[in-house]
Amino acid sequence: MNPLLNQELQARRAQLEELVKDLHELTINIGHTELAQTVSDLRNRLHEPFMFVIVGEVKAGKSSFINALLATGKEVTKVAPQPMTDTIQQIIYGEKEETITINPYLKKILLPVEILREIALVDTPGTNTIVEHHQEITESFIPASDLIVFVFEAKNPYRQSAWDFFNFIHSDWRKKIIFVLQQKDLMSAEDLAINVQGVADQAEKKGIASPTVFAVSAKQEQEGQATESGFDPLRAYIQENITGGQAPVLKLLNSVATCQNINERIEEGLQLRKRQLQADMHFRQDIRDTLEGQEAKSKKQVEILVENLIAGYDRITYQKEKELRNGLSFFSLLRRSFAGIFSKKQSAKDWLEGFAKEMESDLHIELNRKLNEGVVDVADNIQQMAKIIDLKIRNSETILKNDHEIFSDIAERRSNILRELQETFSKFINRTENFTDEALFPDKQTLSPNIATGSGMAAIGAILMAVANTPMFDITGGILTTIGLIFAGFSTNIKKRKIIEGFTSEINKGRTQIETEVDANLKTYIENLKTKIDGTFDKFDQLIEKETANLANLETTFQVIDQKLKEMAKSLQSE
Q: What's the predicted TM-score (pTM) here?
């Protein structure tokens, strides 16, 4: 190779090595161990020769094929009727013959064979063998390959397990593949032609345009029958398309393509994660909007309840004020005063006491009736708030599945948080203490025992009654006490106007207090409950926050790598 070209090639390889390093860090940040290992293997093999990976089923004749192709006159790879070992054998150039064991699953064989200066051969275990680890170690070697040589037994190239493995190579890694039908000497020319065409047709159906198919006989090649063996066309293909100085650039192009393949997989996964995040953010906003909407509806029902309470309150107090005015008329007062002096009949004082008790009773009956009627609607709205949220949690959309190739761990973590959210919320709506607001019931003395031990949402109506009852009847009690003091402070025959004014003033104060305190307490209760419900989503919110930050970082890194890979591929293709 021209020294200048060699320098340029070394510079390109160094650039690619940095890119693969960045890609490796990206896979580590993603947390996908297997993909990180694949990129690490690719990085380690960047300086190795163009790699032929020989795959096929047991008994397809892979080892014999390699021995014949190398033409050393020796059995470089063992030929046996059954699989001998789980080991992948990588055959590379070396000044002297040597075998190095890298690990229990990989062995390097060094040979002083000229063709190995430009290419390396990798003999893999059979794809259909039952020996432990064979298929998984074969699959782990595919991503770093530059050309896949798929060897079939010429007599039967249609076995499903072989074509299933082809699907993995072609669909997952989009590797360049050539097909070899080995042991052609065992078939007639007519039958061989049928099977060669059958393999070509099958490959085309699976997406390979103009598939390259060779029929060879390792036995004939090793016996010196070069014309009959079929190896000459295969060697010519290798010389024309790979060797002769082309291999190093092709190696870089293939490595770039593999990096792009991995980066595309990451991008597809990131897009799914992004769609899931967007769905989760939409779901979370929908929860907030639902809570806001249900809060507004519940508060509107509170306003209607208070309006009805005030209407009832006004009706009773108007009647009582009219009755008081009549009762305090001069002749009535005079009659009652004399009646108290000269008979056992009702005195003015007795009448006033009776008036107060009757007013208390009438207000109690009227306000309780209005309260009972209105609380049902408010309680229904609040219960509906919880029920809708529960349903939305159960129907939240799952886009990123737990079996995703790259991001299954992320999907599982989200699934666990969502399941925990469902369980937490289910417990929440069944616990009464979540609905008894501490700000409104600091000592819980206003709660009856049956409310305190009730079952969550079922107790809402009774709790609302307690929330509204306390301020409302404290107000009416205060009015009656004040009225009693007014009556006691004035003789029944003077200052009727001041009694009426005092009565009206206290009635108006009570009215204002019902409008403000009942309204405020019930609305505060609703607000606090909404906040509690929203608080059950804390872990889900943390998931969204963390995922937003992670995705932003991963997408930025992906885009930088993607752009650099495209630029490098374009540069290499132009040379």
A: 0.79
